[in-house]
Amino acid sequence: MSGSNNPYGGSFGTQMTASASYGAAKPAAAAPSGPSSSGAGASGAGELIKDTTTAGFARDVMEASRHQPVLVDFWAPWCGPCKQLTPVIEKVVREAGGRVRLVKMNIDEHPSIAGQLGIQSIPAVIAFSGGRPVDGFMGALPESQVREFIDRIAGPAIDAGAEEIAAVLAEAKVLAEEGAHEEAAGLYSAVLQAEPENAEALAGLAQVMIAAGAPEQARALLDDLPEAVKAEAGLVAVAKKLGQIEEARKLGDPNALERALAENPEDHEARLKLAKIRNVEGDRTAAAEHLLTIMRKDRSFGEDAARRELLQFFEVWGPTDPATIAARRRLSALLFS
């Protein structure tokens, strides 16, 4: 895997350039090693280390990586460096305690996937998350570098103490606010390895997925949770945000709605739709302005639909968000002046 035919870049023995990845929400149990080190056959679906085939790749890698990062080790029996890497990567994956899984593919028996990924040199390890390749490396890296790679993909391991978890959550929140989505996701995922139902980490991870343009992953994360966990306030807010995103996708072209309002400023239906779209686009000021305009012009429209929608915005934005504070002040002026 080298040269211009390598879609991930990098050179032999170096790591490839990463993009955003989202770690696991639930740890898995340890598993026995794969065939190149132990001679065993393919492992079960719940194990940390297993073999796959061309037919099983979609299930074992693409689908599995939507819930937990999956490393795919492309190898061959004749490959000397592969034999060096196998015990190292298996050891580190086991020590990771379920933060990642390892799937091995013999390219002599199953060459098509490696060919599609542009792999020209082995061993090659590609990390999949959210159903897509996000990072990788080539060559028999030393154990320390393999461990660093897994920490970057799945987040570092943390102690389960309350103080440590609180510190990691605080750091993740700051990173998320700064737009460092991959780093924040890694920390939230690390917390979830220690506490799989930590509501703050689950909500934070879902928010990062949304901010990175992957609301479908956030929806899948929430859908898999027990009902009692979904009822936590932070996760309720995320669910409402996802509902707003999903609704906005059905409301039409915002440019067409803008034109409709230019032709008829009293088209409150168009203005309400545009407010919902601007909200999911992140323009909270414009979204609130549209709803407040409807209220000024016709409080009875849609049985007070504009006010009710604005209150929904507040729930998702949070009480301390500057947009919430400003819009709530103006709402109070309209209601009580």
UniProtKB/TrEMBL annotation:
For this UniProt record, the keywords arranged alphabetically read as follows: Disulfide bond, Electron transport, Redox-active center, Transport
Matching Gene3D superfamilies:
Glutaredoxin, Tetratricopeptide repeat domain
Here the segments flagged for biased composition (Low complexity) are: 23-40
Q: Which residues form the Thioredoxin domain?
A: 20-155
The annotated region (Disordered) lies at 23-46
The highest taxon in the source lineage is Bacteria
Q: Which Pfam families match?
A: Thioredoxin, TPR_19, TPR_20
Return the InterPro entries for the record. Thioredoxin, Thioredoxin-like_sf, Thioredoxin_CS, Thioredoxin_domain, TPR-like_helical_dom_sf
Q: List the SUPFAM superfamilies hit by this protein, alphabetically.
A: Thioredoxin-like (SSF52833), TPR-like (SSF48452)
In the record, the note on similarity to other proteins reads:
Belongs to the thioredoxin family.
Q: Which PANTHER family match?
A: GEO12009P1
Instruction: From the Swiss-Prot or TrEMBL record, give the protein name.
Output: Thioredoxin
**Can you name the source organism?**
Xaviernesmea rhizosphaerae
